[in-house]
Design brief:
- The structure is a homodimer.
- By secondary structure, chain A is of the alpha/beta class.
- Chain A is 37% helix and 16% strand.
- In chain A, helix 7 links the parallel strand 4 and strand 5.
- The termini of chain A are far apart.
- The interface between A and B is large, with 125 and 123 residues.
- Strand 1 of chain A pairs antiparallel with strand 12 of chain B, so a sheet runs across the interface.
Chain lengths: 375, 375
């Protein structure tokens, strides 16, 4: 039992709680302060015993009613139900987990909850989970391998039946005991490292190669590439696509044309401006993901000469800009749906060997990728 | 224990698993099929007993090591740790929940995982949860009151310590037993119905009123309003702001100027086109949220006359369109952060009465809201 002044610290570390300031606060009516009284907060949930006492029946009878088992007269069932409602009793699913082994929940580990790419992916995973009667538990690694591991193991400790993981790290041997213990796992967007696991990815290499070929077909030779950190699988694959398209066209790539790193606007802005300056500026840019594309669009909007642009990932309103933004689109919802369906096939026991599933990308031409070289 | 052909149905309903088709499938190496063998999937996690047997110590000693209690020699602790690693033993947090009462997790119930408005809000809640050592469990109601209730109660059954809820329904009396039992709860974006609970909202009324006043100040009198379903609190409040601004300016609102309903592009497109046709078309439109704004921008892009536009919610790239889109911006991250901090103050036991906290909105002028009437 907690005293009224103790901090919330279920894991045992004491962390000060930040004050909220600067907002208007309008107190409402205060009818129901009952739940705030110290001493009533925890550990006082009604139990089956309480229900049995109130209904004047045995514990086994309550258990039968709660679990929908036979052998209870309608009149007794009514009394038990009345007691359940009066006391606000609810079955504790944590106890069920321990008894039955399965929790009807799956975990989804994202890279960033705020990246719009993951919105349709998450929703698709949730839809599939729901169709299988399972709850989706969700969290993000913020592109930090330690945090990914912490979150994955926290979900496993809560006994999720399966995991859909967009990995931040590149070594997933920490998952081996969980896999052995039967936690179904599917990686999505990026593959697992050092373990065999199902993975669903877009054709990052082929999509980027086709996007750069498109720029080459429109007369460009000095083509820049601005991408995410090369340790991220998707970034490396898209860079490989860029290099392959250039090599296939017999264009030697010069170092200043490639810039890889974090996708924050400041870094991307600097990279774009560097490529666009000097005696031999690039005449076209291929951007490695939606975050990079949005920043490069802003740089090009303020640039004196037209510069061609093809971006990996579609972005909202890209068709209404002047020019419209040509993109290599992934199907984020299909990635999520495919991964989740695969997960439930693992849980069915119908899959034997891990597979790699690759979904195609789609080039959508809207104007920016069809601009000719400015010089 | 499940047999290999049974469907995943932990809740007891049998649902067929959809087949994935139409994607390239590339089998990978199959070194590790061990985890897929029937009979090894469930119920064979190593227990403390297994660890004790392997380390050649008693169960109490293993328990001491696992829970960081004193009274174990370094040599014994080393043997136990080796056994833990060799067996892949992990403490079962479901059991801890039952013993300790708190789970170090909070639930977040969203309206739609794919709406970009909820991205920064979710991330802010997660950051606060993490700062308090708690895991965020997340799900969406898809704007369905029954689904909201189902999800909230499922999270309560898993004994989350607290809930941040963006409600879909308007009657939350179903939560009363949970509140009594001590589940901390904060509503965000929209208030709770028929219960007293903390709520953090934007100033939807004032923001919409200021946006419409802005259009009136630029000479408009025939101003349309396209919003979400009026049973949604935010939609009703923004409509009230529109009506108040019009009334304050002495402009009688005509019925054809107001369109409320679902925000799917088809309905919004039709509504906008109707307002823009006829002998006395509107010269300006106020849009009730980001989903509506995006569709109206498309309609206006194809319209022969310039029409002024102010939208509720900011949208990405709004500044780069021609004209730039004037918006009433909410601070989605501040909503999430404020709600989550409030939740942890409840869990600290430092709050007594439920409050309503209202965050200000911000008018951002970019061009579309400053266009004069076209006639």
């Amino acid at each position: 039992m907690l005293d009224a002044t103790s901090s919330y610290n279920p894991m045992g570390t004491r962390i000060p709680v930040a004050d909220r300031t600067g907002h208007r606060t309008v107190p409402e009516t205060t009818r129901s302060t009952e739940r705030r009284l110290p001493g009533t907060r925890y550990g006082n949930r009604p139990t089956m015993k309480d229900v049995a006492a109130r209904a004047g029946v045995g514990l086994k009878t309550v258990s039968r009613v709660v679990n929908g088992e036979p052998g209870v007269t309608p009149e007794t069932e009514r009394r038990v139900q009345e007691a359940i409602e009066a006391l606000g009793f609810r079955r504790n699913d944590s106890a069920r987990v321990l008894r039955k082994g399965r929790t009807a929940s799956i975990g989804l580990v994202l890279e960033d909850l705020a990246d719009p790419f993951y919105g349709p992916l998450s929703r698709a995973v949730e839809e599939v989970a729901r169709a299988h009667g399972a709850l989706l538990i969700n969290g993000s690694s913020a592109e930090d391998a330690d945090r990914e591991q912490e979150l994955v193991l926290a979900l496993c400790a809560r006994r999720v039946d399966g995991l859909v993981v967009i990995p931040a790290g590149d070594d997933h041997r920490y998952l081996e005991p969980e896999l052995k213990a039967g936690v179904a796992t599917v990686f999505v967007d990026r593959p697992a490292g050092h373990i065999d696991a199902d993975v669903v990815v877009s054709d990052n290499f082929g999509g980027a190669r086709d996007g750069v070929r498109h720029l080459i077909a429109h007369g460009h030779r000095r083509i820049g590439f601005i991408g995410d950190m090369p340790r991220i699988h998707t970034a490396a694959e898209r860079l490989r696509g860029y290099r392959t398209a250039m090599e296939d066209a017999g264009i030697p790539v010069e170092d200043p044309w490639m810039s890889l790193g974090v996708t924050d606007p400041e870094r991307v802005r600097r990279a774009a401006r560097e490529m666009l300056s000097g005696p031999e500026p690039v005449t076209a840019i291929f951007t490695g993901n939606n975050r990079v594309t949005v920043t490069v669009i802003r740089v090009l909007a303020g640039h004196p000469r037209p510069v061609a642009l093809v971006g990996f990932d579609d972005i909202e309103l890209a068709d209404l800009l002047q020019p419209g933004v040509t993109v290599v689109a992934q199907d984020a919802a299909a990635l999520g749906r495919t991964a989740a369906e695969r997960l439930f096939r693992q849980l069915d026991g119908t899959l034997l060997a891990p597979e790699r599933i690759e979904l195609p990308t789609r080039l959508i031409t809207r104007g920016s990728g069809e601009l000719p070289p400015a010089d």
